[in-house]
């Protein structure tokens, strides 16, 4: 099974210098996988279902995409377990004037299908046919590895980002940022839970603000490490997306992003950590060439927190 989505990039999809936002591309990637994942999981008889995003593996932004180019997003199912689907996605950008195309992104995503009749019920996934036993074994190894890493990531979900008054420039506190968003119907799947692509786009926006505050230059997404979706976010929740700088080199910045969900209607359930990820950004000069990144100043207190 495969699926392709084509979208022309508009001014609303890009930053002030015309580079398409990484979050826009992540949202397109998630939409393409939603089509193929849900189609596959409904090829068998039984409960109708929707495939929910559980994890995004490291995603590299190989080349920038610009306003006016056409994004070709193709998705293919490469592995299935009893309750999960692995989808691999490639993104090509096309200059429709010259016809030139280039590969801009490659991503691997994992999904779990939930019944439309009972959102707490996980539906079994129809198996796919593999070209060889080696291909199936390689997929199984990827499945076990991502499952283990997701469990390890959950152990850090108690961390919070503390605000600091009048922070010193180039410190973690100086650039840390948060965004608050109310989950509405247009953000959600048929189940009433937020699309993974909506969440990823908001996470990229916050990470971009953190990077821009630190550098004071044009910045672009270079890569995204594994994005782990720990718990579903329901319509009507208020989500807080928080980002902080965790590392800088001469050419890049690493930013950690948390998503916390607060159910307004079911307040007794309390606030919870829903999604976590690390984004890598690079700084660009006026000619879109890599620009040196100011070193991060880390206080003793921040060092202690990072160790804990």
Automatic annotation (TrEMBL):
<protein>
    <recommendedName>
        <fullName>palmitoyl-CoA hydrolase</fullName>
        <ecNumber>3.1.2.2</ecNumber>
    </recommendedName>
</protein>
<dbReference type="InterPro" id="IPR033120">
    <property type="entry name" value="HOTDOG_ACOT"/>
</dbReference>
<dbReference type="GO" id="GO:0052689">
    <property type="term" value="F:carboxylic ester hydrolase activity"/>
</dbReference>
<keyword id="KW-0963">Cytoplasm</keyword>
<feature type="active site">
    <location>
        <position position="204"/>
    </location>
</feature>
<dbReference type="GO" id="GO:0005829">
    <property type="term" value="C:cytosol"/>
</dbReference>
<feature type="active site">
    <location>
        <position position="15"/>
    </location>
</feature>
<dbReference type="GO" id="GO:0009062">
    <property type="term" value="P:fatty acid catabolic process"/>
</dbReference>
<dbReference type="InterPro" id="IPR006683">
    <property type="entry name" value="Thioestr_dom"/>
</dbReference>
<keyword id="KW-0719">Serine esterase</keyword>
<dbReference type="GO" id="GO:0006637">
    <property type="term" value="P:acyl-CoA metabolic process"/>
</dbReference>
<feature type="domain" description="HotDog ACOT-type">
    <location>
        <begin position="1"/>
        <end position="117"/>
    </location>
</feature>
<dbReference type="Pfam" id="PF03061">
    <property type="entry name" value="4HBT"/>
</dbReference>
<dbReference type="InterPro" id="IPR029069">
    <property type="entry name" value="HotDog_dom_sf"/>
</dbReference>
<feature type="domain" description="HotDog ACOT-type">
    <location>
        <begin position="173"/>
        <end position="287"/>
    </location>
</feature>
<dbReference type="InterPro" id="IPR040170">
    <property type="entry name" value="Cytosol_ACT"/>
</dbReference>
<keyword id="KW-0677">Repeat</keyword>
<keyword id="KW-0378">Hydrolase</keyword>
<dbReference type="GO" id="GO:0052816">
    <property type="term" value="F:long-chain fatty acyl-CoA hydrolase activity"/>
</dbReference>
<keyword id="KW-0443">Lipid metabolism</keyword>
């Amino acid at each position: 099974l495969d699926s392709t989505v084509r979208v022309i990039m508009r001014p609303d999809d890009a930053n002030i210098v015309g580079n398409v936002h990484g979050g826009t591309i992540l949202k397109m990637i998630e939409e393409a996988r939603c089509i193929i994942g849900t189609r596959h999981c409904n090829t068998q008889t039984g409960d109708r279902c929707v495939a929910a995003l559980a994890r995004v593996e490291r995603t590299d932004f190989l080349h920038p995409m610009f306003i006016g180019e056409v994004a070709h997003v193709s998705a293919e199912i490469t592995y299935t377990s009893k309750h999960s689907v692995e989808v691999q996605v490639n993104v090509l950008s096309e200059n429709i004037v010259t016809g030139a195309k280039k590969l801009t992104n490659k991503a691997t995503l994992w999904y779990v299908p939930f019944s439309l009749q009972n959102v707490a019920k996980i539906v079994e996934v129809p198996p796919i046919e593999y070209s060889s036993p080696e291909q199936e074994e390689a997929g199984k190894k990827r499945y076990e590895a991502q499952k283990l890493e997701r469990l390890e990531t959950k152990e850090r979900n108690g961390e919070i980002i503390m605000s600091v008054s009048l922070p010193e420039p180039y410190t973690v506190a100086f650039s840390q940022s948060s965004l608050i968003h109310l989950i509405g119907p247009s953000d959600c799947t048929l189940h009433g839970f937020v699309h993974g692509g909506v969440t990823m786009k908001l996470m990229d926006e916050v990470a971009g603000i953190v990077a821009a505050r630190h550098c004071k230059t044009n910045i672009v997404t270079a890569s995204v490490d594994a994005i782990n979706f720990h718990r579903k976010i329901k319509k009507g929740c208020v989500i807080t997306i928080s980002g902080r700088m965790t590392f800088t080199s001469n050419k890049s910045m690493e930013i950690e992003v948390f998503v916390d969900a607060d159910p307004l209607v079911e307040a007794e359930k309390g606030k919870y950590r829903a999604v976590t990820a690390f984004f890598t950004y690079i700084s660009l000069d006026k000619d879109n060439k890599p620009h040196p990144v100011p070193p991060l100043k880390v206080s003793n207190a921040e060092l202690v927190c990072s160790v804990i």
